Amino acid sequence: MENRGGFGSAKLPSDELKTNLEYIRNLFTGDETIQFRHLTSPYQTDWRFCLVYADGMVNNRIVNADVIRPLLEYRFPERPGDPAEFISQHVMFSDGSEKTAEVEKIVQGLVYGDSVLLIDGCAEALVLNTKGWAMRSIEEPESERSLRGPREGFNESILTNLSMLRRKLRTPDLKFHYRTFGRRSRTKICVCYLDSLINHDVLTELEKRLDDIDIDATLDSNYITEIIRDKTYSPVKTIGSTERPDVVASKLLEGRIALFVDGSPTVLTMPHLFIEHFQADEDYYINYVFASIGRMLRILSFFVSISMPAIYVALVTFHQEMLPTPSLLSIITARQGVPFPTALETLFMIIVFEMLRESGARMPGLMGQALSIVGALVIGQAAVDAKIVSAPIIIIVAFTGIAGLMVPKIKGFVIMMRFLLLGFSCVLGIYGYLLGVIAMLTALFGTSSFGVPIMPDVYADDAQDYKDIYWRTSWKKMLRRPKLLSWNHNRQATKGKAK
Q1: 194, exposed or middle or buried, with CB in 10 Å at 0-12, 13-18, 19+?
Q2: Contact by Cβ (8 Å): 457, 465
Q3: Number of separate helices (H) and strands (E) present in the chain
Q4: What pLDDT shows up at residue 410?
Q5: Residue 134: helix, strand or coil by DSSP?
Q6: Which phi and psi (to 5°) does residue 277 adopt?
């Protein structure tokens, strides 16, 4: 793609204030939010300045108190050899001040909430930290609510998000590395990890993939996800995502890497294991016995959600002899008068359920809940009364949908596998279903996230390898970090796993 929006190594054209101002004005032609505030020292009239900033992006109190007021009240001496350095060290109250002549840094500072001070007789400018745009307050994420544990979630400010993570992990071992993506958006991202715990091969692979990114704008973390993921067209997630600081901290303590994107409350974590879809934040804030029961129910719900329609169609269409006689007679009676075959009515009702679920999610608050409940009751009952579908298929689809709601983190994969297994069952019956399950498991065991297999070992030589997979053991027995994520010296006893 054509590379536009960058300035390369261009510098301010002159040490004359008038020339530099004209240059900046030409860059922002048509942008009426860029403000120019001309200032002259009342004590030394040969000290002339112009403060440039983007209206609405700066904190006006900081601009007035820490920039304009010191410039007007300071008794300037005779002009020194480096006016910008002198003002930065002796005049400015701003907590951040960078001297530069590069147009790229000046422009990025302006559009990101900094103020730029141009000085007459100086070919360099001061980029001052005056950020003050409005942002969403810290609150619990709607999609990751928990009855126990912290109630804070990330917002759209990368600096706020990093501060919340720093408060969780107060150690110099926590590393932050900034990068910028998007030729036009110039979005800042930050790669975070605990240096003594990560697998450096994973970090090297991540940096290699980030280096290959070439995109016009990065408006959300999913832009990065789609580019750096392992398999572009695979429905299986190989990069995790969360809006909770405690979850990110726990991932880092297991040896993972987190990626923050400015403007997005969603933080990416990698490598990502398949079992993470069934782990809930609350599992680590309640008794491990109840947490284990809940996790096994989620795993069971996953298989129920993808399998129930396919098994029903296979039994009713191809293998009636496998059904108990009373159940078979009941299904035959309920299907009398229904003009469509079992496979078609099952497919139709699954599509209708997904339409109701999606419309309920998109509608505002209480209206969406009412639409989902009323729509399901009215349409289901009317379809049965009109003999368009049979009553058993309503029960099957409803139970399938409820089971799917227990694993929202893997919604896309569940929907795709549900249709895939249904298609196999429509053609080959129960053998088609089994073939589809084998194909799914083969694909899962063959998928990796940044070189790390997403599925656990089938045969484990140590009970520690299963301590937090299908169930959660007690904290006293969590002695080692995950085997797949850590390197050799991390497999030593660590007395407690941070989650």
Answers
A1: buried
A2: yes
A3: 16, 12
A4: 86
A5: coil
A6: -65, -25
144-174 per-residue burial string, b: 16 or more CB within 10 A, e: under 16 = bebeebbebbbbbbbeebbebbeebbeeeeb
Q: Tell me the whole-structure pTM to 2 decimals.
A: 0.81
Q: Quick one: pLDDT at residue 305?
A: 92
Cα(44)–Cα(132) distance, integer angstroms: 31
* Domain assignment of residue 466, yes or no: no
Cα–Cα dist 153/118, whole Å: 39
Cα pseudo-dihedral 209, 212, 213, 214, rounded to 10: -170
* Residue 179: its H or E element: strand 174-181
Q: Among residues 92, 109, 91, which one has the least CA distance to residue 100?
A: 109
Cα–Cα distances in angstroms (integers) from residue 2 to residues 10, 28, 107, 216, 252, in the given order: 19, 21, 20, 9, 37
Contact between residue 99 and residue 11 where contact means Cβ atoms under 8 Å apart:
no
- pLDDT, residue 90, reads 87
Element (H, E) at 116: strand 115-119
**Any long-range contacts for 451-456 (C-beta under 8 Å, 24+ apart)?**
451/201, 451/202, 451/205, 451/271, 452/199, 452/202, 452/271, 452/273, 452/484, 452/485, 453/484, 454/236, 454/238, 454/271, 454/272, 454/273, 454/274, 455/273, 455/274, 456/273, 456/275, 456/484
Domain region containing 89: 17-128
| Three-state secondary-structure class, residue 414 | helix
Residues 304 and 435 in one domain: yes
Tokens in use for 127? 């980029």
| Residue (of 226, 258, 223) closest to 242 by Cα position | 258
Q: What is the mean pLDDT of each run of 10 residues along the chain (499 residues)?
A: 57 88 90 89 86 89 89 84 87 86 89 90 90 81 81 88 90 90 87 89 90 88 88 84 90 91 91 87 85 89 92 91 87 84 88 80 64 67 79 87 86 90 92 93 88 73 69 78 54 40
Number of domains in the chain: 3
State the Cα–Cα distance between residues 280 and 149, nearest whole angstrom: 11
Within-domain flag for 183: yes
Q: Could you give the 3-state DSSP secondary structure of residue 39?
A: strand
pLDDT at 2: 38
Q: Within a domain: residue 493? A: no
DSSP class of residue 478? -
Q: SS3 for 277? A: helix
Note whether residue 479 is domain-resident: no
